[in-house]
Prior knowledge:
Blueprint: H1 12-21, H2 26-39, H3 41-46, H4 54-57, H5 61-64, H6 69-76, H7 86-95, H8 102-113, E1 121-122, H9 123-134, H10 141-155, E2 162-163, H11 165-172, H12 178-181
Antiparallel strand pairs: 1-2
Helix pairs in contact: 2-7, 6-8, 8-11, 9-10
Amino acid sequence: xxxxxxxxxxxxxxxxxxxxxxxxxxxxxxxxxxxxxxxxxxxxxxxxxxxxxxxxxxxxxxxxxxxxxxxxxxxxxxxxxxxxxxxxxxxxxxxxxxxxxxxxxxxxxxxxxxxxxxxxxxxxxxxxxxxxxxxxxxxxxxxxxxxxxxxxxxxxxxxxxxxxxxxxxxxxxxxxxxxxxxxxxx
Length: 186
């Protein structure tokens, strides 16, 4: 069995490792690599784990329409600047796959919504989240504050005006459609 016989750009060992580290089959991993390659075929031909700039990643239709696209790229970027290597891209696609467990999705959702990256979702994080969700339809400041107040009344169990991961996880557990919403179909 040749190293590249049916595994495309990867050795059998690399594919096996990727399969163990993700929620994908080997065939799905090759499909994800194909999607990654289509973003910049020349760069990926030179280096299968090339680092592609965020502006290219954001051309993916699934991300292009997502109001949190910049945060998603930054959270999955190993360099923190939003640029993704294939391994970063594979991690992202794995977390957003149907096979990823809810607990993993919740962890990454928390990181995406934690804009200031202090391990809590505070009032400013919620403001940014609401603003991104509203897009072009800007809400008046008092309406945004009302939404934030309601979120804290419902979710801030220790009343410290911020959501810990445990509090966030508790709220998400009540949202039956969360897993379906936190998905990218390949």
